[in-house]
Amino acid sequence: MSTLAYTLSDTSTMLRRQLKHMIRYPSLTAIIIGMPVVFLLLFVYVFGGTLGNGLGGDAVAGTAAGGREAYIAYVTPGILVTTIAAAVQGTAIGVAMDMTEGIVDRFRTMSIARVSVLTGHVLGSLIQALLGVTVVLAVAVLVGFRPEASALGWLGLFGTIALIAFGLIWLTVGMGMAAKSVETASNTPMPLLLLPFLGSGFVPTESMPTWLRYFADYQPFTPFIEVTRSLLAGEAVGGEDLALTVGWSLALALIGYAVAKRKFNKR
Amino acid sequence: MNTAKSLAIEARSLTKSYGDNDVLGGIDIAVPEGSVFSLLGPNGAGKTTTVNILTTLVPADGGEVFVKGRSVTRDADEVRKRIGVTGQFAAVDGLLTGRENLHLMGSLHHLGKAETRRRTEELLERFDLGEAARRPPATYSGGMKRRLDIAMCLMGDPQVIFLDEPTTGLDPSGRRTVWSIIRELVRGGTTVFLTTQYLEEADELADRIAVLDGGKIVAEGTPEQLKRLVPGGHISLRLHRADQVALAAQALSASAFDADQLTVQVASDGSVRALRALLDALDREQIEVDELTVHTPDLDDVFLSLTGRVESAA
Ligand SMILES: Nc1ncnc2c1ncn2[C@@H]1O[C@H](COP(=O)(O)OP(=O)(O)OP(=O)(O)O)[C@@H](O)[C@H]1O
Ligand SMILES: [Mg+2]
Questions:
Q1: Cα(B175)–Cα(B213) distance, rounded to whole angstroms?
Q2: Which of A125-134, B84-93, B191-200, B226-235 has the least mean pLDDT?
Q3: Confidence band, pLDDT 50/70/90 cuts, at residue B3
């Protein structure tokens, strides 16, 4: 076998290991998926009526009046991206937990593709994140969300979600590797959960004070959410948002990868 | 590559510091193929650090290490292909079952499905883990976890295995099980590098022992050679005639004698040379001897006198 074949084989072995962990220890997956579902219901049924009225006519194209219905259409993309941010909380914990186990030292004395220890986590988390987004989207449809995406739009949506997840997962793999303890690893990615709120996830950034709006418009979650929103609404995706989404995702992945690799080899 | 072919492990002037803690101060290790080498030392002596360096886990600060003729720094992957490691602390996946842990190793060694299955069942059988194979190691006893750990390190059929305190925390029967596993491996031609705090264990298993203390190897040799290194060894004689006791005591510069019991004790390292000198002296004086016993100190004496630490022998 070639080096590439070995790398792929080891990665799939490590992925199978992660999937087994997920099945054996389902409570983490449940929390990760349950949290955004609670957010969704909370924002639709508790805040939705009021927030929807405040959206203004052009915030969501095609919905003339405000109200709960308009807010479901507005908030669902935000919740979906929040779902990814929630899923990657588990990544950092999983990686940090793994590093405290002797088994990783065993892997390091074996002739395996070393990166597979990390890529196993990445692919496992990716599956977990996509699963989470699917469940949350299904719940959103159940409570009245009506996506308008074309077939191509769905494909684009899948790609966008996967790309964003890829960036955030590698970032949190890096956080998990850099953390001195599992405890730390469960805290460092927390701010990611806050970012959709400080962006266009729950209200349009136009409604924020200028200084906050400045931050909101330039942080990565705003383009993530905007692209997701356009795709779900069946609208054309803004070129700048798309470029920012791709750029941010790859940059975050690269940073996380670099940190993780360095830490893995140094340990 | 000028390393002697017959050495499975060779380390030259190995040094390692953590901050200003000089853990290893230039140690040399040579382990011939197919033999058992035991590194003995009290807590914190640097045994695990040495194992970590030899198994490519941690880089040394200075010195060179070859395993099966391959440099652990320049050729780490080649070294990894040839070794199996069982660290001081269990290195098993706590969420997978015993069988899945072995399957995981098989996949990572690219053995193929059929061969992985075959070897897994064979190892489960050999290590008496059949009944536990369907449970995760979290439910195992310490001894079972150890056995699974060693089984995992054998999955890739290594030529050299490293065992860091493999029997610490095991009961006597568990210890004996591990010993018989090690002996069986050696019979199959595997080279074994073993660290331990138990002198009995080194005595039982090792062809050569090195005592590590304060970052240096303070003694090295076969168990017998080591025992001869320390004071406390002596030769006991029981004479035939009471009237020769005093004469013998004087001729041999005895450390003690007892005319009633007809015994004479002579301090000695127990070596053949010392014994020959003693026999010559007895001949010269025409002393009749009924019984002669050589007492070499046991490894506990060696360990304590070399490391000067009492608690480590516990
Ligand atoms: N990663 C590390 N960072 C800092 N110091 C370390 C590290 N690993 C080991 N040490 C220090 O190196 C010394 C030797 O440790 P080592 O674990 O090799 O001893 P040991 O002989 O295996 O002891 P034990 O019998 O307790 O297992 C100790 O003083 C320890 O504190
Ligand atoms: Mg140790």
A1: 24
A2: B226-235
A3: very low
**CB atoms < 10 A from the CB of B105, how many?**
26
Cβ separation B152–A101 shorter than 8 A: no
DSSP string, B272-288: HHHHHHHHHHHHHTT--
Query: Per-residue confidence at A245, pLDDT binned at 50, 70, 90?
Result: very high
Measured CA to CA, the distance from residue B295 to residue B233 in angstroms comes to: 5
Q: Which domain holds residue A115?
A: 3-266
Helices (H) and strands (E) in chain A, counts: 12, 0
| Count of domains observed in chain A | 1
> Which residues of chain B does A110 touch, with a Cβ-Cβ cutoff of 8 Å?
80, 108-109, 156
Please report the residues numbered 34 through 73 in chain A whose beta carbons come closer than 8 angstroms to any beta carbon of chain B: none
Structure tokens, B132: 């536990």
CA A72-A78-A84 angle, to 5 degrees, is: 130
**Helix-helix angle A151-178:A239-266, to 10 degrees:** 30
3-state secondary structure of B289: strand
Token pair, residue A88, equals 């990657």
Instruction: Note whether ipTM > 0.90 here.
Output: no
pTM of the model as a whole: 0.82
Pocket perturbation via mutation, ligand 1, pick of B48, B199, B311 by most ligand atoms within 8 A of CB: B48
Domains and CATH numbers, chain B: 7-223 (3.40.50.300), 234-296 (3.30.70)
Distance from chain centroid for Cα A231: 16
* Alpha carbon separation from B79 to A108, A112, A196, B159, B160 (Å, rounded): 12, 12, 48, 10, 10
Query: How confident is the model over B89-144, as pLDDT tens digits?
Result: 889 998 899 999 999 999 999 999 999 999 999 999 988 898 899 999 989 988 89
Across the range A102-114, mean pLDDT stands at: 91
Separation of first and last alpha carbons in chain A: 29
- Name the one residue in this structure whose structure tokens are 């011939």: B32
The A residues from 2 to 21 touching B (CB cutoff 8 Å) are 6, 9-10, 13, 16-17, 20-21
The phi and psi torsions of B220 (rounded to 5 degrees) equal -150, 145
Strand pairing of B208-213 and B36-40? parallel
End-to-end CA distance of chain B: 43
Contact between chains at B85 and A109 (C-beta distance less than 8 A): yes
3-class secondary-structure state, position B84? strand
Mean pLDDT value across residues A46-69: 71
